[in-house]
Each structure stands twice: as structure tokens, then as C-alpha cells.
Amino acid sequence: MIKVFHIPVCPFCQRLEILVALKGVSSQVHFEVVDITKPRDPHLLTLTGGTTSLPVMELDGGRSLKESLVLLDFLEHRFPETRIRRTDPYERGIEGLLVTLADGMMVAGYRLVMNQDLDQRDARVEAWTASLLAIDAFLTKHGQETWLFDEFGWAELAFTPFFQRFAFLDYYEGFSVPEGPDFDRVRRWWAACVAHPAAQQTSDEEVIKSYYDYARGKGNGALPEGRTRSSFVFEPSWRDRPWPPKDKYKTHATDAELGLL
Ligand SMILES: N[C@@H](CCC(=O)N[C@@H](CS)C(=O)NCC(=O)O)C(=O)O
């Protein structure tokens, strides 16, 4: 049994969950939940070599691996019966190239949702828009009608968790993929990715409620000023909490208003 320590709603961790679902090996990979709002268990720090970010994979013989793309590669080779990566060397290179664009888009999207300064907003929107244009151009050149190749594959599973997190941009910034033909290709890909049956581990509601602190400029369990409970706490469950205020630049909700007490 392979054990993966993960944070629910973490997009990097969800990449692994999607791959496991696509391969149909969920009975052979156990996902153990870690509460990001509490100090890390020393055992986890041993597995990661001291870093706090997850996912991390525990293997037999005291071995471990981390970094989502490394873990995806491990699982692809460990369970070769259903191949998700392309086997043709050139096509494999193309999907690898597209995956290199995921980080830039992720950073630009997170910088936009975490922005607290209205004067910075246009520049951050521009950076995020530029990252989408690059993906659109890549898909227009190399992609098929919907997917990069003939079905939801390696590149799709690397991007989809972030497309789903960007429900927070729509909610807190009133901003999604821009209108217009320059974005048609990436918009079509995005819509197909988030609707794929293997990628339904989270929902817009869970993302929007959990990432309220990001919208207030604080990531990874850090607390915005005046608050004592993170929006990533497990109890009360996000399901039982009210929707947070949308206007992150003006309204700063308390623990009580967020239903966190
Ligand atoms: N490059 C890493 C990034 C993982 C990452 O940033 N995970 C976040 C959650 S989304 C995390 O563990 N944050 C908590 C922390 O760093 O303490 C990967 O691809 O696995």
C-alpha cells in the first residue's frame, strides 16, 4: 500500500487523486488527511526532509518522495497497466511542454486572488491574462478539438485542479477567463477539464469558503489580522458555514461571520 499525506482542497494533492481515479487504482493508494492549521507531525517532517508542503508519499523501507509532478511520474510507472502519459516520444514532449505553463498560470492566479491593493489589481489581471494567452496559443498550435490529444490526459490532470481553484477569482475578483476569440481555445479546454468525471474531488463551494484567507492575502493556514481560526479548519465543516463576503477589498469578515467558531 502506498500512502500519500495530503491536504484536502490542495490542488497539488488533487493532481494525484485524479491520476489514481483515471488509473482505477484507488484501492492501492491510501490518502491520509493532514490538517494544515495544526503544527506538523514530526513523522511527516522526517518524510519530507524538513519542508512543510504536501503532498508527500510514504513508501516501504523508510523511503519517501515529494513534489506533485514527481509523485505523478512515480504513480504512472508504478501502475503501468493504464497509461496516462503519451507513449510517443514527441507527443510526450508536447504534453510536458504544456505542463511547464501550469506554474506561471498558478502563480499569476494566486497573486491576483491574494492581492489587497486595488492599485495593483490591473497589473495582476494583466499577468494572469498573459498566462492564459500563452496556454491558448499552445493549444491552438498543438491541440485537438477539445483536449491536447484525444482525451483527458497528463497535461489536463496537471492543470485541472488549478482551473477549479480559480472559482475563487470569479467569486472574489469578479473575473474569469476573458471574453473574446483570443481565449476561445483555452476557455473550451478549461470547461471540459473541470467537468471531467475523474476530477470531481472538490466543488466551487468548498474552494470559495476554504480560500477566504487567501482572498485576504494569507496563504497556507496563516491568519488574516483580527482572526483566530483559519478558513482551512476542518470543524466547522465548510458545508455548514455561510458564503463569505465577496468584496474582499472592503469587507473583512470575522471568525463568527465566517461561521468558524
Ligand atoms: N511544488 C509542490 C507544491 C505543494 C504545495 O504548495 N502544497 C501546499 C498546499 S496547496 C502546502 O502544502 N502548503 C502548506 C505548507 O507549505 O506548509 C508540489 O507540486 O507538490
**CA-atom Rg in angstroms:** 19 Å
- The structural class is alpha+beta
Count of discrete domains: 2
* Strand percent estimate: 5-15%
Main sheet specs: 4 strands, mixed
Fraction of residues in H or I helices: 40-55%
Distance between the termini: 37 Å
Shape-level CATH architecture of the largest domain: Up-down Bundle
- Order of SSEs, N→C? EHEHEEHHHHHHHH
- Gross morphology is globular
Descriptive account of the structure:
The protein has helices at 11-23, 42-48, 68-78, 89-114, 118-142, 154-165, 167-173, 184-195, 204-210, 212-215, and strands at 2-6, 29-33, 56-58, 64-66. It is built from 10 helices and 4 strands; from the N terminus they run βαβαββαααααααα. The protein starts with a strand and ends in a 46-residue tail after the last helix. It is of the alpha+beta class. The chain has a 4-stranded mixed sheet, with helices on both faces. 36% of the residues are buried. It has 2 domains: 2-78, Glutaredoxin, CATH 3.40.30.10; 89-199, Glutathione S-transferase Yfyf (Class Pi), Chain A, domain 2. The model has no long low-confidence stretch (mean pLDDT 96). Helix 1 (11-23) packs across helix 6, helix 4 packs antiparallel against helix 5 and helix 4 (89-114) packs parallel to helix 6. Glutathione is lined by residues 7, 10-12, 36, 52-55, 67-68, 220.
